[in-house]
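Q: Is it fine to ask for two folds in a single conversation?
A: Yes, each is treated on its own. Send the first.
Q: Here.
A: Result:
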Amino acid sequence: MITFRHVTKRYKNDNYALKNIDLEIHSGEFVFIVGASGAGKSTLMKLLYAEEKPTNGIISIGGLNIANIANNRIPNLRRCMGIVFQDYKLLQNQSVYDNVAYVIRTLGISSREIDARVHGALKIVGLTDKIKAKPSELSGGEQQRVGIARAIVNGPPLLIADEPTGNLDPKNSMEIMQILDQINQRGITVIVSTHDNAMVDYFRKRVITLDQGQIVRDIQAGTYE
């Protein structure tokens, strides 16, 4: 599903975020991307949803090379994936319902279909009782659940989560990871970058470790260390 071939990302002053990365992630996998701060995790994630473009190399998603994708095609690319952020990125003046519906209201589907999808996504994350609430009325864990519901409401084959538990306590972190695991069990490919070694050790998924922009470890059913 996802292939990196000789991917390098170099910033100004020859600062390398990633160096000659070769990587394959298959459809339906759950993958943790780990490493110290500055190892290249966030850059790798941003390359996946074309927030950044590589200096060299090929990035293929579903057979499409996105390494040099035109800017006007990026919105279509992102409709095929869900993205979850550490800081939630919710619309603060909108309800939970409207935050989740926001991404599918431009697709030309009926209001009945939008309603069904929003309720379905909120049911998966356990927030149907908060449908009218504003983000300011929710805990951090609940806000991240809204972010996950928004990411899956369009039924994407791929979910990218960049430090999804970075602002949460251990209890909420576990709940968020359990939701991501349940989503993966529905056949969706899930890629999570994280510093949370306890979560990585608990779930024993595939673990890819980055160090100074290079893959130094790639192990199935692995741990953080």
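Q: Second one now.
A: Result:
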Amino acid sequence: MKPLMVILAALAVLPAQGQQEKLAQTGMKFLSVSADPRAAGLGDALTAVEHGSASMFYNPAGMAWQASSVDIMLSRTRWIAEIDYSLGSFALRPAQGRWGVLGFTFLAVDYGDLEETIRFDNEQGYLDLGTFSPTAWSFGAGYARALTDQFAVGGHIKWASQNLGDSVMGLGEDGEYTREKFAERAVAYDFGMLYRTGFRSLQFAVSARNFARELSFAEESFQLPLTLRIGVSMNMMDLVALGSGVHAWLVSVDASNPRDFSEQIKVGTEYQFLDTFVLRAGYAFPTDEQGVSFGLGLRQSLGRMGFGADYAFTEFGIFSNVHRLALRLSL
């Protein structure tokens, strides 16, 4: 009963957190972008879903019951405004999981070349100074362990950096522009718990992402996009008399409480046939422009080696639609 009491306590804390004043501004937002196609296909409702090494991006406890000795995921996302996200995860389960599961992650963001301008008293109202290329990345290490057959915990520490380039601050005595570098680094922490209720495949989970100290660019301070979530998931085929080896129908729901905007409900569903072909759909609300997400997946195994590919598409209203693709390997 102790794991259940922990879950219930966390459920009580999250609504209370929702009463706090929203700060309306956070930095290093790239840390909160969902770049995994399975998660996106489920509307990001992945908190209570076991997802191998990629769980470290959502709820690190989700890799505690990893079935394979090694799990690898590589993903590419074409985000809004042609911003590219590349990420990967690797998890190792030594000694048949008796010592838990150890994992590593990386995330890199390519913003492309942006035009650099400054205000000026001319016909255009600005001077063109050429282009600059902001960068952002993070590297992380995670650990998860099943404390009992029903309860698992996990953590993820990541080193994150964002460089917005050198900004013109004025004109020096030598007639050259004076510049100031706008770059910041931070250490952030993610935590999660996952509880198998014992009723069929019903699972509850709680996660907290992006705990970190306050940062600042010049005189403007900001905090990382801290997000608290609770989630529930279940294979609905457990309720009907159909073979679990043929059909699986996952339904997952998350309640998300981010630091910088309103609380959201995320709902996702995933149908799997013969443990090979996968269809997904998901939706989050309320949102400004994000619409419905759809996803496809393919699973195949060769002896102990497993292969997989996932794709997701998300509507974003007046912005460009988002496409995600991932490849997976397990040993």
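Q: Anything structural to flag on that second result?
A: Two points. Confidence is low (pLDDT under 50) at residues 1-21. The two ends are 34 Å apart (CA to CA).
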